[in-house]
Design goal:
about 110 residues; mainly beta; 4-stranded mixed beta sheet; two-stranded antiparallel sheet; about 20% strand; globular
């Protein structure tokens, strides 16, 4: 091989949509339910590029949280720190899109 190798990374294959009506400031924020709300209680911020109105696939958010929580796959996401699952049947719908909001990952099954 002649000359130096090019070790630069390729350009990203996915870019932010260029539609001017797309909600660019829309994110999904995932928090720990046992900690007080604040900047130090944010597990993830996901840009909401999975839907034209802004949103993130449930399976992406859930998987990221489950891994960080030590592979706690029996958990669920809720819209409040002490609340029930974010939507009835949400955990079964891996193609469900979470709207732009704050969600909490509970690493244990929901019990009413």
């Amino acid at each position: 091989m002649d000359g130096p190798r090019d070790w630069s990374l390729p350009a990203p294959c996915y870019q932010q949509p260029q539609d001017p009506t797309f909600p660019r400031d829309c994110t999904i924020e995932l928090r720990h339910p046992g900690l007080p709300d604040g900047d130090s209680n944010v597990l993830f911020h996901f840009p909401a590029y999975d839907h034209i109105n802004g949103g993130v696939h449930y399976s992406v958010a859930f998987t990221a949280c489950a891994i960080v929580a030590g592979n706690k796959w029996e958990g669920y996401l809720s819209e409040t720190a002490g609340g029930p699952p974010a939507a009835e049947g949400l955990s079964e719908g891996i193609d469900t899109v979470l709207a732009c909001a704050t969600y909490y990952f509970h690493p244990h099954p929901y019990s009413a």
